[in-house]
Amino acid sequence: MVRIFGSTQLKRGLAQMLKGGVIMDVTSVEQAKIAEAAGAVAVMALEKIPADIRAQGGVARMADPALVKQIMNAVSIPVMAKVRIGHFVEAQILEAIGIDFVDESEVLTPADETHHIDKWNFKIPFVCGARNLGEALRRISEGAAMIRTKGEPGTGNIVEAVRHIRLVMDEIRKIQNMSEEELYVEAKEIGAPIELVREVKQLGRLPVVNFAAGGIATPADAALMMQLGADGVFVGSGIFKSSNPRKRAEAIVAATTYFDDPKILAKVSEDLGEEMKGLDIRDLTEKDLMQVRSE
Amino acid sequence: MKIGVLALQGAVSEHVSMLKTLGVDAIPVKSKKDFDNINGLIIPGGESTTMGRIITKFNLDEVLKEKIENGFPVYGTCAGMILLAKRIENYEQFSLDVLDITVVRNAFGRQTDSMEIDLDVKGLDTPFHAIFIRAPVAKDLGKDVFSLAEVEEGSVFVRQNNIFASAFHPELGKDPRIHKIFIEYINKSKI
Hints:
- The structure holds two protein chains of two kinds.
- Chain A has helices at 8-17, 29-38, 50-56, 65-74, 88-96, 133-141, 159-176, 180-190, 194-203, 219-227, 237-240, 245-257, 262-268; strands at residues 4-5, 22-26, 42-45, 79-84, 101-105, 126-130, 146-149, 209-212, 233-235.
- By secondary structure, chain A is of the alpha/beta class.
- Chain A has an eight-stranded parallel sheet with strand order 8-7-6-5-4-3-2-9.
- In chain A, helix 2 (29-38) runs parallel beside helix 12, helix 7 (159-176) crosses helix 9 (194-203) and helix 10 packs parallel to helix 12.
- The longest helix of chain A is centred in the middle third of the chain and has 18 residues, at 159-176.
- Chain A is globular.
- The model of chain A has no long low-confidence stretch (mean pLDDT 95).
- Chain B contains five helices and twelve strands.
- In chain B, the strands form three sheets. In chain B, strands 2-1-3-4-12-11-10 form a seven-stranded mixed sheet. A three-stranded mixed sheet of chain B has the order 5-6-9. Chain B has a two-stranded antiparallel ribbon with strand order 7-8.
- In chain B, strand 10 and strand 11 (154-160) form a beta hairpin.
- The longest helix of chain B is centred in the last third of the chain and has 14 residues, at 177-190.
- The two termini of chain B are 12 Å apart.
């Protein structure tokens, strides 16, 4: 039997298996094990979580492959890792060590201000951030197998994540009501290939799985994203910057499954201890914003 | 006929739309009361550890196990196969402990080893294009378990009376033949 590897179907398929789940940022084997036991569908292996990248400044790069490998060996769930935008060699390195998913991420310092990685060149799937439909479709046209709305990472503040998921869902609804000639104009205006715009109209959703990210800190935040139409959530700093990561992680997992059941949401939101302090987006300058690092 | 798709996490909507194209009423199920009005259940692909965690946290294990042990038709894909298995190699994790197989998780390797193949399936005239994603295989099949498809690494489609399990994902493709096998079984068992 001939075996086919690395196809678009297989890349997008792995993202489909993550739906309804929580992907958690981890910086050590110990954290990865806590995340897995709490019910994470995947972990994102990082050197530093976004809140610390933000606080410490400097250039943020791909994690040490040794750390990523340790985490891959410690858990049975898929392991993701971040590369700088446009840094295709960091992606080649992660592919070489057998990573399950690459996040071409604005959380790290961009390596290329013009180009994203040509993700069709890889056998492994990529997830990319987007703030609106045009950005999402451009990333898909470059080969992204999964999208996450960006939010504002490392802030513990949901406001940007809400803005981005609402915008994407709103643009999708708008496209569904457009006529064929209007689709051409829309494709031009949002800077996306017409074929993908047409596919969105036909499907009534993005052609790949769409998670929400950037500022999710509580079970209610996760459920809010799900009710607004996200397929699942990424939680970065929100878990391991809180006082009781294990309990909070489990509560966010439960809230992502039972996002439409307020009684369960109430129950799992109880006694979670202190959450991460969080930042007011208005206190950030343009330079501090990670979401604007690529279009 | 109404088939439930366990909607705790994973590829739920894909199974629901496959069933609907076959003219079967399909609903996502995630709490005890949802199980009352369905004739069969699909446990979808996703992460078996995540689903296992939610099943135990919300006490769904007893109702699921009792129903399946009393002949309720169930079909698990990928993570669903793991959740049904009696034995899981190398991992300490929850399972419903009803299907007499040893399941080997990530039997082919990681995502780079995920694959598509044309698979010979017992009862189908032509091969089925099967999609394996970080898939398990079944081995040490009990005496009541029949293997319906194999690859080099082990069995990838098995049946034990009312319990069906595949390591691959028919819900990701367009070919409805595997779902039809399950639906036909439910139709027959109702009479």
